[in-house]
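Hypothesis: this fold can be encoded by more than one sequence.
Test: take the structure tokens below, design a sequence, compare later.
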């Protein structure tokens, strides 16, 4: 306040009344001392207030760790990460702890497929488990040939039709149909674009499960083929699943068949997955009498495949 008053005096042009007197010099000294004292007091009060606020906040949010962990285990996981860990140091420590996410995996049934592969980050492992999904787009032909690259389009070409025979999965209502010359189609999956970073793929090497459903027509012979490749950054094969061509005779039961394969211990460097399948009929009949395919899938499985 004293410093402020002195400023008012100076701005009013009254300095001349004090410029040659000891009184003015003493006034300057008192003003400086008063300002310093005022500033120190304010700073001290501010620090004390902050410290008191910090202590009161910590006391307010302080909860025994085992109880806090149990609370977090009963909250949505994204809420724990996005909200709870920002509250205070103690909550962040629990939200980031290995024990919390390891226990969450146990309770939700995410078990290691290989006991020797211990995740470096159990939280990351948990979220990768929860995001397990089919990485193939339009696997049932619901959007015609969208997302598929046509490699071979022989005979009367690929076609999408309604099912001739009910599929074990009642939600599947359409299939792709081949013709009298070879029909093949493919999809290339970029793992990093799908959220699987290189370090996770290299260090943990999660199981990669592929599946495909195929069926012949009852009145025509046909053949089916599949090839799935794990590729490196240069799109060169690291590992491949390519079983022998499967043949169906004429006058068969036209039932749906499933083929599955799990890639394991494939080594570091996998960045892409190429899924290719197709076939044809063996009677060379005009139209669409060849093999039918649908509900294809490629899944990254950090936890045990079920």
């Amino acid at each position: 306040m004293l410093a402020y008053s002195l400023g008012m005096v100076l701005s009013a042009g009254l300095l001349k009344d004090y410029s040659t007197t000891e009184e003015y010099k003493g006034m300057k000294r008192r003003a400086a001392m008063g300002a310093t004292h005022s500033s120190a007091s304010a700073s001290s009060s501010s620090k004390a207030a902050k410290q008191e606020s910090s202590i009161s906040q910590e006391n307010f949010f302080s909860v025994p760790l085992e109880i806090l962990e149990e609370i977090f285990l009963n909250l949505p996981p994204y809420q724990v990460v996005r909200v709870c860990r920002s509250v205070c140091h103690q909550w962040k420590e629990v939200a980031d702890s290995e024990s919390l996410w390891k226990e969450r995996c146990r309770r939700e049934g995410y078990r290691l497929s290989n006991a020797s592969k211990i995740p470096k980050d159990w939280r990351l492992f948990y979220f990768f488990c929860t995001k397990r999904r089919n990485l193939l787009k339009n696997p049932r032909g619901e959007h015609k040939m969208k997302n598929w690259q046509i490699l071979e389009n022989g005979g009367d070409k690929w076609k999408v039709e309604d099912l001739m025979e009910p599929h074990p999965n009642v939600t599947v209502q359409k299939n792709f149909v081949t013709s009298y010359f070879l029909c093949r189609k493919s999809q290339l999956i970029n793992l990093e674009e799908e959220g699987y970073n290189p370090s996770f793929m290299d260090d943990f090497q999660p199981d990669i499960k592929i599946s495909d459903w195929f069926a012949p027509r009852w009145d025509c012979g046909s053949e089916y083929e599949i090839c799935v490749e794990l590729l490196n950054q240069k799109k060169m094969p690291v590992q491949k699943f390519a079983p022998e061509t499967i043949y169906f005779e004429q006058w068969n039961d036209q039932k749906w068949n499933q083929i599955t394969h799990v890639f394991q211990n494939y080594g570091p460097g996998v960045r892409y997955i190429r899924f290719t399948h197709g076939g044809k009929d063996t009677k060379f009949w005009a139209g669409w009498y060849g093999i039918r395919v649908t509900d294809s899938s490629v899944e990254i499985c950090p936890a045990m495949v079920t």
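Residues 1-28, 30-40 have pLDDT under 50 and may be disordered. The first strand starts at residue 149 and ends at 153.
Hypothesis status: open.
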